Amino acid sequence: MEIIAAYGTVFAILAIIFGLFMSWGIGANDLANAMGTSVGSGAVTIRQAICIAVIFEFSGAVLAGGHVTSTIRKGIIDPSGIVNNPEILVYGMLAALLATAFWLLIASWKGWPVSTTHSIIGALIGFAIVGIGLDAVKWGKVGSVVASWVVSPVIGGTVSFLLVMSIRRLMFNADDPLKNAKRYAPGYVFLVGFIISLVTIFKGLKHLRIDLSGFQSFSIAIFFGFLTAGISWIFIRKVKQDREADRDFHFASVEKVFAPMMLFTACAMAFAHGSNDVANGIGPLAAVISIISSGGEVMQESDLPIWILLLGGSGIVLGLVTLGYRVMMTVGKKITELTPSSGFCAQLAAATTVVIASRTGLPVSTTHILVGAVLGVGLARGIGALDLRVVTDIFISWLVTLPAGAIMAMLFFFALRGIFS
Amino acid sequence: MDIKSTTPLSGLFRSSPFKPVQEHMRTVFSCICFLPAIMDALYRQDKAQIDEFGHNIIQLETEADAIKQTFRLNMPNTLLLPVDRDDLLRLISDQDRMADTTEDIAKTLLFRNMEVPDSLKEILDELLEGTMEISAAAKDMIEQLDELVQVGFRGREQQKISAMITGVRRSEHNIDSILFRAKRTLFENEEKLNPISVMFWYQLIDLLGSISDQAENIADRLLLFISK
Q: Which of A126, A209, B94, B115 is most buried by its number of CB atoms within 10 A?
């Protein structure tokens, strides 16, 4: 208790710096992956992507990020064994932040496909084992989180497979593909607005002191669905048949309908990313602040202060405008193979899967779910070629990231404890 | 520090294998397009033009080979493709063989001073026309590949390509009967011609015929794509 009282401000400042550094890292790298699909298919310019990211990362983090943050704060570790030594939990959370940030730096330097989410979980487990004891890790919860890493890309893939099949049936195989595309496209955009707002607001806004009944939630979600569909209609109705382009590729005009639609999935992706990756990035920071402000209460009963989510959002935007836009361009260039229609399906599937995972408090990887969703398009025979080596790479990155995060967190934990205790 | 993208996404996407297949087919087709020209120069006994067109054909065949080479280098067996990888590799081989055959014809005309017997001209023209028609049909089918990917090799595009496949089959059958008549005509005039020339004409007629066989092979591969 004395240590918290003596060094409380120092810990808080350190946590804020580390937390900002980490969310900067997420913005510089991870976000670029999520948005690169829209940029790559030519539907969204870099400038638009940055604007979208600023708005929707924030709203995703603030509106839907609380559940994941709370999993990181108190879902993985049981701190009841160190009620009298709350500083241990503070060291641990700081160590987890540092370990994750460093691991991300190394990965960015080497170009390894790692995920923030996995590094954080690894770091938390690592610290808990040496700092509190093996029993302090809620292995059941860890198991379900790890299972969700496998299940979520599969769900994303299944959803995108079904979406691809449905747009083929309704649009590409119709007598007049362009006419049908224009007719059904707002319906798909409705789905984007409806599903994401429903998942977010259905009993999910308690932390903002907003408590809506089921019926109210539905009405608001339907309103948002119609709103997005209406806005999309303004863009879509302007699409004209381009006979010149159609001669080369028969569906060129139909693809033009999907370009404005990808604007909406780009927003959805940024929202989803904010709700999951931002949220788990700032989880340790939230834990530190909560312990300090309560004067050493490790059970963290207090609510999550909104300013922490805002801080996480700012870090991410900072990362994006300083470095991330460049990564986004590189990623965008590499994935030009994705047509707007398949990009739309993949992003819609990925965004909904991530938001649902966020709602259930599961920290998942947006990028890996997007990979799953793209593979779903590939299984529907909709993409020229996908390299399945990536799937092996992802599995390897899990196997490496968990222990690497854990070991680094242990080292940082001992270092911090040595400095302050 | 150099920030590299850590995304698995950029490793996931490979460039579409259908684009090089189409590019290869276009090159092969422009190679075949020199056949009527070189035959015409032969009719006129214009040695300079035979030489020029012959070398054009050889050059285009080399270009097609280069495309095929890079294509094969970019086909690791970890790829998830909408069609069978082996079928795709065989497809480009079939296309390439069309260019090889054209080159064989051109080389024969380059190294040997051939003369076209008047009795053969009419049926040769018919054979050339048929060969051009079936090659153009094969190229048109290959041009449909990107649309087929877009719709997952099903539906309307599938029906369209089946109709094209049937068309190629019919042309090939038609060319078979032209080949028979060409050989018959040659046989009937054997006495009047130089025996060695006759031998080469049989060979040239067979080479022209095998171009349409390969066009039919291409149609068969596409049939496998849409029936997967």
A: A126
Contacts (Cβ under 8 Å, ≥6 apart) of A7: A87, A420
Hey, is A416 helix, strand or coil?
helix
First to last CA, chain B: 48
Q: Return the closest-CA partner of residue A170 out of A345, A351, A350.
A: A345
Rounded CA separation A188/A230 (Å): 11
Q: Is the pLDDT of residue B14 over 70?
A: yes
User: ipTM value of the model?
Assistant: 0.82
> How many other C-beta atoms are found inside a 10 Å radius of the C-beta of residue A6?
12
Q: How high is the pLDDT of residue A1?
A: 60
Q: Which chain B residues are Cβ-neighbours of A384 within 8 angstroms? A: 14-19, 81-82, 149
CB contact under 8 A, A173 and B156: yes
Which residue ranges form the domains of chain B, and what is each CATH number? 16-227 (1.20.58.220)
Instruction: Give yes or no for A37 touching B (CB within 8 A).
Output: yes
pLDDT at B126: 95
Please tell me the pTM assigned to this model: 0.88
Q: Which domain holds residue A205?
A: 2-420
Contact status, residue A270 vs residue A11, Cβ threshold 8 Å: no
Domain count, chain A: 1
> Which of the residues in chain A have pLDDT under 50?
none
Cα dihedral A283/A284/A285/A291 (nearest 10): 110
pLDDT at B58: 96
Query: In sequence order, which residues have a C-beta less than 8 Å from that of residue B202 and are 6 or more positions away?
Result: B183, B186
pLDDT band at residue B5 using 50, 70 and 90 as cut-offs: low
Q: Does the beta carbon of B77 lie under 8 angstroms from any beta carbon of chain A?
A: no
How far is CA B153 from its chain centroid?
23
A21 at B interface, C-beta within 8 A: no
Which residues of A, range 189-208, sit inside 8 Å of B by Cβ?
none
Tokens for A263? 């604007």
With cut-offs at 50, 70 and 90, classify the pLDDT of residue B4: low
Contacts of A244 (CB under 8 A, 6+ apart): none
CB contact under 8 A, B13 and A331: no
Q: Is B79 in the A-facing interface, judged by CB distances under 8 Å? A: yes
pLDDT score at B1: 43
